[in-house]
Amino acid sequence: MMLAEKVEPLFEAKSHEFYTIATLGSHSALQILKGAHDEGFRTLAIANRQTERLYRSFNFVDEVIGIPRYEDFPEHVGLLGNRKIIIVPHGSFVAYLSLEDHKRMTIPYFGNKAILDWEASRELQRQWLSAAGLNLPRQFRSGSEIDRPVIVKLYGAHGGKGYMFLRDAHDFEERAGLVARRNYIIQEYIIGVPLYIHYFYSPLTGRLEIMSMDRRYETNVDSLGRIPAAAQEGLDLQPSYVVVGNAPLSLRESMLAEAYRMGEEVVRVSKEICPPKGLFGAFCIETIITPDTQFYVMEISARIVAGTNLFIDGSPYSYLNYSEPMSTGRRIARELKNALLSNSLRYVLDDSSVL
Ligand code: AMP
Ligand code: AMP
Predict the structure, then answer these.
(1) Ligand 2 centroid to 299 CA: how many Å?
(2) Is CB count within 10 Å lower at the N or C end of the chain?
(3) Which of 188, 203, 229 is the last residue of a domain?
(4) SS3 call for 186
(5) pTM for the structure as a whole
(6) For 244-255, how does the pLDDT look when each residue is reduced to its tens digit (9 = 90+)?
(7) How far is the CA of 286 from the centre of ligand 2 (A)?
(8) Cβ(307) to ligand 1 under 6 A?
(9) H or E element in which residue 6 lies
(10) How many CA atoms lie within 13 A of 209 on its CB side?
(11) Is there a single domain that holds both residue 270 and residue 229?
């Protein structure tokens, strides 16, 4: 039985109806606010001058506040006044706000900000994922160590922009000038199918769910196969990894158990590195699956990812658990509702949240 069903009769008014769920108008905001509306919350989009009209056009968005630029959000938190607002972060928060901006905010925030340090540093993230026993691509400290095809990733690259495929150490020497004086990592290039697995971990029930999964569609790497290798010869074609969208995928069922185990291990270790709450809510493990059906993990995102936008109406996996449309955005709102109705809000908010 859901927690909310157990405790709801104790409350005369449904306390969550007095709360507003707010987020920045970008990335997966529509999904988050639609989910919040469907769970009975009020909804607020913080938009910029370009997006204000768009968010006003949706009937599940109760209120839109316009600010000049998303980067300026920390200065405008005062606009939200003394209302009961909960912020749900998504990918644009990390793209537009610094770690310090995140930590300075005391507005109630869904998630654990302590985990951001472990996510933001490639070294710490690697430690976390290794401790969880996940398969990671090899990393090379310098060009001279390279003994196989690699991908060079610039720090702070967004959406795969600025990644470079290199065949060998010689190729690195020739093209290293392109990354000179910038921070980057050199990683073994894994050839296989990229699969992004979307999870939700409930701190209220201690249960992990697979919500959905997607594969990203990237230009131009996903299109190179349209030109036969023979015809590519002599053309100076370099693969690039700029994300343009996401496509749904259902995983071979015999591989689901491993996908679930990876999520469980990541959550388990997160409680050791960021005690006691660890990682909770939505997160995504980004993998590449090789021909021997091994998952290699490239990265973890500690919040809702844009690939979940495919499943605003639910996914095959969320349908199995809920038998009703349950997007990741709605699942977040459901958790907040269950927390409010059982007086457990502190378990689902960052500790900096001033209620
Ligand atoms: P945006 O709100 O579009 O500025 O995106 C914020 C961050 O999320 C950027 O780092 C984007 O690269 C990333 N992002 C946006 N949309 C997607 C998508 N469909 N798939 C993967 N990443 C995305
Ligand atoms: P990321 O920024 O880690 O999400 O990676 C963006 C894209 O780069 C992925 O979707 C893959 O297509 C590609 N990529 C990243 N790491 C690797 C790797 N180790 N091997 C092969 N492709 C990779």
Answers:
(1) 8
(2) N
(3) 188
(4) strand
(5) 0.92
(6) 999 999 999 999
(7) 8
(8) yes
(9) helix 3-7
(10) 23
(11) yes
Pair 92, 150 in one domain: no
Candidate of 288, 289, 294, 295 to mutate for ligand 2, largest count of ligand atoms within 8 Å of Cβ = 288
Residues 131 and 146 occupy one common structural domain? no
With a Cβ cut-off of 6 Å, ligand 2 is lined by 137, 151, 160, 163, 187-190, 194, 216, 218, 241, 286, 288, 298-299
What residue owns the CA closest to ligand 1's atom 4? 92
Question: Are the C-beta atoms of residues 14 and 8 closer than 8 Å to each other?
Answer: yes
104/26 same-domain check: yes
Task: Report the pLDDT averaged over residues 316-336.
Answer: 98
Q: Per-residue pLDDT tens for 201-236? A: 999 999 999 999 999 999 999 999 999 999 999 998
Q: Which of 224, 241, 300 to mutate to test the pocket of ligand 2 (most atoms within 8 A of CB)?
A: 241
CB 85 within 8 A of CB 18: no
Question: Where residue 101 sits, what CATH number does that domain have?
Answer: 3.40.50.20
**What does the pLDDT read at residue 325?**
97
